[in-house]
Amino acid sequence: MSFYPIVLEMKKLLRSLDGCLDKTVAFATTKKFDVNTLLQARLAPDMFPLLRQIQATCDQAKYAAGRITGKEMPAHPDTEQTVDELRKRIASVIAYLDGFTKTDFDGAETRSVTTPRWEGKTMAASDYFVEHAMPNFFFHYTTAYAILRHNGVEVGKRDFLGPLPYRQP
Amino acid sequence: MSFYPIVLEMKKLLRSLDGCLDKTVAFATTKKFDVNTLLQARLAPDMFPLLRQIQATCDQAKYAAGRITGKEMPAHPDTEQTVDELRKRIASVIAYLDGFTKTDFDGAETRSVTTPRWEGKTMAASDYFVEHAMPNFFFHYTTAYAILRHNGVEVGKRDFLGPLPYRQP
Fold it and tell me: Is the ipTM of this complex over 0.95?
């Protein structure tokens, strides 16, 4: 199974996330508040705030593609403090994903993945993609979206999904 | 590309959702409230409440497998009012997904999908899976989880992801 189409979907959804942030900036302008205050909003005191949810969304997309192909990944030291900086990070990951082709994902079934946090344990690359990176990507993206909705930002499911490839009858 | 591994992941996450509801029942018992009151909780007044998020999670998993393979789908008329009834629905979709094998997903690239709401429009089955059913599944599952977290239920990322297939060093 090639995971390339799902990486393309993650890239599309990073653009959707950027579009949601565009609407967030507009919302803050209308309501006359500093948009960056929203980056500290959370749904529960022991959940990550919006800032970290967006960073994690970016990371999971980067890891999904980079770790299962073995391609070098750009460093992102989590220094962002503003919506503008977060949007640059999103753009950086989109540019990284632009560098992949379908053939980069050939042979993912035979590769193995590990991370510094796993203390020597590994996971089959395909398992890592399906059971770790992909659900984590969606977890953080949806939670970021939910924080925006909870705070009144006027985004909807279409903003979340992005354009859909309908064929006319 | 075969979507079977991702359908297996959805099945696993439906079990995780059921596990989260188990913890929700325990939380309600400890706090001495009727667990079913939580089913009306929402993150925003114009978002679906927990009840509908769980129904939609079930539906998207069912649609993902059923629509791209063309296999008949069980009817679920959205009559659930209690956590017990929702858990039965989750179990029913898990049982439905148990009936699929890898070969059922062969040829999904050439199939086409439509739904009653699309007014005659169609989508390539593989596009439908990757750009519609899969992100919608994760959207509703994560939002259900977020509503639980927002209301103090003690679930965490491990409950969300379920067991991971680590290999020991």
Answer: yes
Chain B residues whose beta carbon lies within 8 Å of the beta carbon of residue A146: 43, 142-143, 146
Tokens 């539906």 belong to residue: B59
CA distance A75 to chain B (A): 24
Q: The domain that contains B147 carries what CATH number?
A: 1.20.120.450
By CB atoms closer than 10 A (0-12, 13-18, 19+), residue A169 is exposed
A112 forms bridges with which residues in the sheet? Answer: A124
> How does pLDDT run across A86-134, given as a tens digit for each residue?
999 999 999 999 999 999 999 888 899 999 899 999 999 999 999 999 9
Contact B131/A157, CB-based, under 8 Å? no
Q: Which of A55, A68, A57, A67 is nearest to A138 (CA)?
A: A57
Q: What pTM value is reported for the model?
A: 0.98
Report DSSP state, residue A132: I
CB < 8 Å to A13, chain B: 135
The 3-state DSSP class for residue B122 equals strand
Domains in chain B, number: 1
Return the half-sphere exposure (C-beta side, CA atoms, 13 A cut-off) of residue A106.
4
Among B6, B152, B168, select the one facing A130 at the smallest CB separation.
B6
- Asked if the C-beta of B116 comes within 8 angstroms of chain A's C-beta atoms, the answer is no
**Which domain does B12 fall in, by range?**
4-155
Cβ of residue B48 closer than 8 Å to a chain A Cβ: no
Is A99 contained in some domain? yes
* Residue A165 placed within a domain: no
**What's CA B22's distance to the chain center, in Å?**
16
A44 touches chain B (CB under 8 A): yes
Residue A169 has pLDDT above 90, yes or no: no
Residue from B142, B145, B148, B160 whose CB has the most chain A CBs within 10 Å, to mutate: B142
